[in-house]
């Protein structure tokens, strides 16, 4: 067969191929954000570390993610984001393979650090790529598709992964996920780069967005002085960061320790949180597009998330089991609504600043995810919840105090949502065909 005679999809059709490839990759990438939460107690026992030290596994990943967000946003604005996304997926795979092969806690951290570097290249570049292909009026809904794929990845790391680990141990499942990520990096390279070249970069079906190139220093200065940058930073700090920090490490150990349930049962509560995030993306994206406003729906979901964390504190660390499930769903729903951070940036920020502003806002979520796991673990240790002779009542009391932390962190998100601009903005002259 002569490859040159193969009829490739038009530019309009190809956008759906791009969306599909990005969504599948993000689904598998997201399993590596939340996967360690299923095996937290196993890692603690295998590598003989305290709760506070265990928290560094998540924190080092999210610390690197956070530190790299603004440089990646700058680079994504000044060059194509497609290559960066491919490298990110590849590094996620390599880091996962290092993690699952680790024989010391140091190598465990190295693996998570590589995953953190790779993960830092993913979301901001997804936002930039999709902004090229879809118009502003449809952007929140399309972004919700990718966001929902990530939530499906979280779902995989709840009950299904827990069941798999119960049969095969934790090493083999993580090794297979790592190999799958490497394979997906190859697929993304073809879809986003090779096939685009093969189609001659034909963009006649899409009107172009003109992007003015700004010096890096001027770009950063504009972003740091912009109120919207700090509003979206705070929003992401409260909505995304608290969810990631807790579900990635502490939710399963919490339910096992306080409620005395088995790992597979505890994983169901992670699943409930993931389901909340899963349904939130499409619902909030559609509602905010229909309202033509991001602030009101974001304020509602941020407030509900804060009240959910506070519920655990009010019930002294152990709400009724049914109410605990509602708490987890609401927290997940609040995280799913965090796509409004980037929809708001898409609405109100000029294209030449979209990447760096998205990176700045995204770093807020991951600052929260860096601080919370270690602080949460340290709070548990400080209140005597370690050791073989510790009673369940002591553990429950320690967790009840520790849950004050995600509650306080979520309040920052509420404040951020209150300072967002009304409406969907008219800053960007956007002619891209819907």
Number of domains: 1
CATH class, named Mainly Alpha
- Rough outline: globular
Quaternary state of the chains:
single chain
* Strand residues, percent: under 5%
Return the structural class.
mainly alpha
Question: Could you say what the CATH topology is called?
Answer: Growth Hormone, Chain: A
How far apart are the first and last residues' alpha carbons, in Å? 35 Å
Structure report:
This protein is 79% helix and 0% strand. It has a single domain (11-198, 216-418), classed as Growth Hormone, Chain: A, CATH 1.20.1250. The chain has 18 helices and no strands. It has 434 residues and is mostly helical.
Question: What topology emerges from the helices and strands here?
Answer:
Elements: H1 11-34, H2 40-47, H3 51-78, H4 81-101, H5 105-120, H6 123-133, H7 136-156, H8 159-168, H9 171-198, H10 216-225, H11 227-259, H12 263-291, H13 295-314, H14 321-336, H15 339-348, H16 351-382, H17 392-402, H18 404-418
Which features does this protein show?
disordered N terminus, Growth Hormone, Chain: A, 18 helices, mainly alpha
Task: Write a brief caption for the model.
The protein is mainly α and 434 residues long.
């Amino acid at each position: 067969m002569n490859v040159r005679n193969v009829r490739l999809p038009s530019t309009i059709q190809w956008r759906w191929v791009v969306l599909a490839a990005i969504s599948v990759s993000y689904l598998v990438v997201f399993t590596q954000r939340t996967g360690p939460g299923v095996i937290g107690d196993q890692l603690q026992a295998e590598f003989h570390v305290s709760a506070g030290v265990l928290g560094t596994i998540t924190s080092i990943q999210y610390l690197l993610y956070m530190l790299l967000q603004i440089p990646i946003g700058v680079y994504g604005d000044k060059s194509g984001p497609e290559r960066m996304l491919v490298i990110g997926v590849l590094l996620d795979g390599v880091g996962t393979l290092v993690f699952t092969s680790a024989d010391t806690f140091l190598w465990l951290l190295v693996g998570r650090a590589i995953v953190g570097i790779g993960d830092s290249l993913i979301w901001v570049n997804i936002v930039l790529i999709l902004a090229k292909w879809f118009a502003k009026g449809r952007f929140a809904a399309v972004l919700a598709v990718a966001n929902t794929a990530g939530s499906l990845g979280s779902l995989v790391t709840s009950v299904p992964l827990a069941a798999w680990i119960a049969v095969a141990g934790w090493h083999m499942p993580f090794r297979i996920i790592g190999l799958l990520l490497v394979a997906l990096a190859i697929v993304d390279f073809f879809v986003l780069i090779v096939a685009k070249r093969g189609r001659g970069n034909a963009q006649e079906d899409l009107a172009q967005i003109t992007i003015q190139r700004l010096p890096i220093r001027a770009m950063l200065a504009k972003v740091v002085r912009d109120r919207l940058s700090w509003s979206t930073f705070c929003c992401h700090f409260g909505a995304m960061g608290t969810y990631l920090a807790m579900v990635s490490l502490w939710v399963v150990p919490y339910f096992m320790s306080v409620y005395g349930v088995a790992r597979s049962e505890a994983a169901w509560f992670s699943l409930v949180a993931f389901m909340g995030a899963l349904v939130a993306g499409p619902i909030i994206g559609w509602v905010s597009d229909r309202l033509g406003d991001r602030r009101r729906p974001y304020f509602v979901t941020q407030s509900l998330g804060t009240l959910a964390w506070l519920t655990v504190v009010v019930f002294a660390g152990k709400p009724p089991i049914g109410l605990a499930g509602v708490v987890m769903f609401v927290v997940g729903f609040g995280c799913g609504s965090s796509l409004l951070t980037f929809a708001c940036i898409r609405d109100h920020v000029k294209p030449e600043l979209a990447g760096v502003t998205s990176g700045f806002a995204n770093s807020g979520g991951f600052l929260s995810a860096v601080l919370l796991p270690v602080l949460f673990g340290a709070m548990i240790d400080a209140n005597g919840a370690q050791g073989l002779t510790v009673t369940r009542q002591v553990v429950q009391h320690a967790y009840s105090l520790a849950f004050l932390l995600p509650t306080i962190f979520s309040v920052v998100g509420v404040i951020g949502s209150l300072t967002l601009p009304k409406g969907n903005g008219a800053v960007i002259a956007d002619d891209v065909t819907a």
